[in-house]
């Protein structure tokens, strides 16, 4: 574990993060695409996240007062196929009692219902705790003498895991149970990262874990193609295929890659990358060319 609760990093090529929005603000383009639409019987409370083809809203069901996540897919953007993929994944998970009784079922944010409106398809999901990334560190950046300076302030969960390694075991057990369920059903999540893991915890225990965002998920045996998700968490053979898919060695398409993989291989590499973040307290998206040192000026590790 990194020894300092605060790290300073200089980086020649800054990269923007995608933090959870703290206020209800839409860009002009988002206003055109998503409008001010809300499904009947729901009230929007905040924006939880932005994806390539959807917005995710924190919302309340007016009759039951239940707090949910609403994933909005505008029909005029050709994104209905993505919503259908997520629906199919959860139909598979809900297909038998063995899945319902599986321990890993507790660690997946489940699809509660689908709302098909005139202009949008809305997927209604369970909500969970904080994103793992926010529970581990808070990142602030500013420019100084032509360079981007990042301050990484370690948060309560990172400090708790550093003191109590059993919490790391608890986190991994809950994640592995969820992956066991997914992989038994031939499902690859394909976008495992700290932003897509929700955690509920106290100073001594990981109480709950929820895997979210199945927008990149696919069935391993029937997949015809795969798309780029978050490159820092992808296995080298996947990145190589995505960068060189026209190469003759990939003449069979994604099947050429999957011949050397198991259903669990894709996500397990991502879990290893995720574990690296938890252990070091350092987000993978920061440039590998950066110079990293503690707040006192001591070099942590060379990049």
Automatic annotation (TrEMBL):
The chain crosses the membrane at residues 268-288. GO terms for molecular function: ATP binding; protein serine/threonine kinase activity. Keywords: Membrane, Transmembrane, Transmembrane helix. Residues 42-303 form the Protein kinase domain. InterPro entries: Kinase-like_dom_sf, Prot_kinase_dom, Ser/Thr_kinase_AS. SUPFAM superfamilies: Protein kinase-like (PK-like) (SSF56112). GO terms for cellular component: cytoplasm; nucleus. Pfam families: Pkinase (PF00069). Residues 1-23 are annotated as: Disordered. Coiled coil: none annotated. GO terms for biological process: mitotic DNA damage checkpoint signaling. Residues 14-23 have a biased composition (Polar residues). PANTHER family: OVARIAN-SPECIFIC SERINE/THREONINE-PROTEIN KINASE LOK-RELATED, SERINE_THREONINE-PROTEIN KINASE CHK2. This is Protein kinase domain-containing protein.
């Amino acid at each position: 574990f990194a020894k300092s609760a605060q790290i300073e990093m200089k980086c020649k090529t800054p990269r923007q993060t995608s933090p959870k929005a703290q206020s209800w603000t839409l860009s002009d383009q988002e206003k055109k695409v998503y409008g001010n639409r809300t499904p009947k019987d729901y009230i929007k409370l905040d924006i939880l996240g932005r994806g390539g083809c959807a917005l995710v809203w924190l919302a309340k069901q007016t009759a039951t007062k239940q707090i949910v996540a609403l994933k909005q897919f505008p029909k005029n953007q050709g994104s209905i196929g993505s919503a259908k993929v997520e629906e199919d994944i959860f139909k598979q998970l809900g297909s038998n009692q063995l899945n319902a009784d599986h321990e890993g079922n507790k660690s997946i944010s489940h699809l509660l219902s689908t709302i098909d409106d005139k202009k949008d398809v809305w997927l209604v999901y369970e909500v969970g705790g904080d994103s793992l990334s926010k529970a581990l560190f808070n990142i602030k950046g500013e420019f100084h003498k032509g360079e981007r300076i990042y301050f990484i302030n370690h948060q309560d969960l990172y400090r708790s895991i550093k003191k109590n390694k059993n919490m790391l075991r608890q986190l991994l057990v809950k994640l592995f149970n969820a992956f066991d369920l997914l992989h038994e059903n031939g499902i690859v999540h394909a976008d495992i990262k700290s932003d897509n893991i929700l955690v509920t915890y106290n100073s001594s225990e990981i109480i709950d874990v929820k895997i979210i965002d199945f927008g990149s998920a696919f069935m391993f045996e029937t997949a015809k193609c795969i798309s780029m998700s978050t490159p820092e968490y992808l296995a080298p053979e996947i990145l190589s295929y995505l960068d060189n898919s026209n190469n003759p060695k990939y003449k069979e398409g994604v099947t050429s890659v999957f011949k050397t993989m198991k259903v669990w291989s894709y996500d397990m590499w991502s879990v290893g990358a995720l574990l690296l973040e938890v252990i070091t307290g350092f987000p993978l998206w920061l440039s590998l060319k950066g110079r990293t040192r503690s707040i006192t000026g001591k070099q942590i590790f060379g990049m």
